[in-house]
Amino acid sequence: MSSNLKNFKCLIHFNETQRGSILSEYLTYSMLHEMVMQKFKLEANAVINLSFKLSSFDFAVDITDDAEVTDCVQTKKKLKLVISLKLSLKMDLSDYEVPRVLVTCRNDNEVFEMLFIAIGASIRTFLNYLRPVLMIDAAHLKGLYKGTNLVAVAMDGNNQIVPIAFGICKGETGPCWSWWMSVLKECIGDNPNLLFISDRHAAIALAVEKEFPLAFHAVCCRHLMMNLGLKNKKRKGLFWKICKAYTREDYATNMNTLQIVQPDAHEKLCRAGPQRWSRAHCPLVRYNYMTSNSVESVNACSVIYRKEPVLKLAETYRAMVQEWYYKRRQLAANMTYEITDWAANKVVKKMKSATWVVKGVNAYQYEVSDGQYIREVNLQTGICGCRKWQLSGLPCGHVIAITRFLGLTDCVHYVADWFKKPKYQATYSESIHSLGNMQQWEFPENIQKAIPPRMDNPQPGRPKNTKCIQS
Ligand SMILES: [Zn+2]
Fold it and tell me: Which InterPro entries match (predicted)?
């Protein structure tokens, strides 16, 4: 390989025929990979670690024909459709292998490169007792070597964060995310029910697509909103109504309103692919998780530790998980209801359906008039026409009205198992153990030593942090 391929810049442009979000099917990692292979006439078996940075992900990119871009920019005729950006591509052509150990060194120099940590108990918790939703995010480290901290979290039945995996790498690049996700896949496997939620960083999108081809990658609606240029609070409220709509009818009604009041935002949302951000259109169940706020709050917890050396940071993470497991195990042992407090609160809020009119169809099917709509409910299949029941796992007002109609004392039976006592107690049944004093550790003789890393400087362009907007 010629060395001038290692760093280069080229122009990209929005090609109308390939328009679409980078997160959508219009532009996949393999397409981008292929474009680079063709452009530089690389052999099919060349190993490429491709990472790139864009200032906007709202459009597909086409890097196959720079001349066309230059022409367009010069003539300024097609600028409305064709806008140019600079794309920095870093190609690392050194051999890249996925090690099977937690801490790995690349090259002969034994330089520390990346770290992946997953505690076995957390992985088993996730696979057995938690909803298959993972939020992933990165935060910049402030210590001597800078670098980036990667985190994946899931949520328990009490809507509390459960850290699943943790990592440190040199920067938020494609190779780093891909390696980290590949080790995560060794722990949890890939499956078609798995949902990832993250911001729209291109490296995350590529890593999910490459390492978890069966899973679905949804985007954080808060990050999406930041790119829409919504003019006022009312429009932001409208945006949240659209994202959170359970039915496609509600979604369409509010989207139509947005199209009238701010057509550019409407167009951006359409291009981003509604299945990525709309609850009504998501092919999997998003529950109440429209943002990646939870994972960012874990990063916020570690903010004071981010100046610490790698081992200290890793131990801080482990100790945090140990403490959370301990406290929640106590909480689970003293549960008041058959469902978690959070789920109970949610259900209570929906108990305003006393005046709703219920008519029976048969033993399982009912018709509930809520003053605005008539919804059909099937207690056997767990489906209500409003879709809240099946998309949240918690009974909607219609189901609650039926339980009242049937003279039942509660509606626990209609709450999904994720929120019930046995699952919640099992979530924290395993203990996370202390590592003890390092002075007392027994080190194997052939232990591999790592020398300090070469970390990248933090990348610009990430939102600093993090006024969480309620989702
Ligand atoms: Zn309903």
Answer: MULE_transposase_dom (IPR018289), Znf_PMZ (IPR006564), Znf_SWIM (IPR007527)
* CA 383 to ligand 1 center in whole angstroms: 8
- Average of pLDDT values for 134-140? 91
Considering the domain architecture, whether residues 191 and 309 belong to the same structural domain is answered as yes
Q: Do 113 and 172 fall within a single domain?
A: yes
Q: Quickly list DSSP for 272-322.
A: H-HHHH-TTT-SS--TT--SSHHHHHHHHHTGGGTTS-HHHHHHHHHHHHH
The residue that leads in pLDDT, 264 or 109, is 264
- How confident is residue 278, by pLDDT bands cut at 50, 70 and 90? very high
How high is the pLDDT of residue 304?
67
Same domain, yes or no: 321 and 354: no
* Residue 466 in domain: no
Distance from the CA of 404 to the center of ligand 1, in angstroms? 14
Measured in Å, residue 398 CA sits from the centre of ligand 1 at 4
Domain that holds residue 50: 3-92
Instruction: Tell me if 119 is assigned to some domain.
Output: yes
Q: Are residues 26 and 131 in the same domain?
A: no
User: Which DSSP string corresponds to 332-393?
Assistant: HHT-SSSB-HHHHHHHHHT---TT-EEEESSSSEEEEE-SS-EEEEETTTTEETT-HHHHHS
pLDDT at residue number 442: 75
Ligand 1 centroid vs 247 CA: distance in angstroms?
11
Q: How far apart are CA 404 and CA 347, in angstroms?
A: 13
| Ligand 1 centroid from CA 421, angstroms | 24
Does 135 lie in the same domain as 62? no
Instruction: Specify whether the CB–CB gap between 286 and 243 falls below 8 A.
Output: no
Q: How far is the CA of 407 from the centre of ligand 1 (A)?
A: 18
Does residue 275 belong to any structural domain of this protein?
no
Residue 453 belongs to a domain: no
Residues flanking ion ligand 1, Cβ below 5 Å: 384, 386, 396, 398
